[in-house]
Amino acid sequence: MSKTLEVLSKYKYLIALISVFNFLLTPIHASISSIQPAHPVVINYTLVILASSLIASDSRKRIRTYALGAITLVFIWIEFSYPNHMGILACRLASSLVLFSHFCLLLIHQLRKIRTMNLQFILGPILGFIYLGIIGGIFFETVHLIDPSSFRFHSDISGYVYYYFSFISITTVGYGDITPITPQAQAITLVLNVIGQFYLAIVIALFVGKYINEKK
């Protein structure tokens, strides 16, 4: 048991990173599986919660992570039963925002403790970047909930499209298949563009600085 805990602690960032990448591939899982679409979403969300909880430094934070995750999963299940209920959708978005913000805080707290250039120091910022993209998707979905005319879509609309747009925004790719129309949507897009660029610049500076310090 202690050996297992040691391995989980050593590779916790890698496990969390694999879980969020798997979460981003949920539409593929849903398309190739014969089970109901709700099941891959809930399964992958649960894996993210369990894997991200490994980042917590003590049992109290881990229990808080489980509690926030359980609340979010409940709203996800209810939303599949009542897909057009705006109140349930708002609760799911709010709980998801709190959950992934909690993940970010856990990650920042742990990264501050890392003093040497190692695997955790490399994987941690990558994990944080994906958390940032998911939070951006939650904001875009919330904006669309408030005002359905916030975006112009050139393809079928699904809940996943907001997270796709979030990641192409923070990476400033801009394929043009989704266009923010209202000032609110444009403002959030602009903020994510700026945050994405500064995030990458800061992470690179930290890598270089820590590498130089270790060489000295």
UniProtKB/TrEMBL annotation:
It comes from the Bacteria. Gene3D superfamilies: 1.10.287.70. The keyword RNA-binding does not apply. Keywords: Membrane, Transmembrane, Transmembrane helix. Residues 156-208 form the Potassium channel domain. The chain crosses the membrane at residues 12-32, 38-56, 63-80, 86-109, 121-140, 160-178, 190-212. Signal peptide: none annotated. The keyword Kinase does not apply. This is Ion channel.
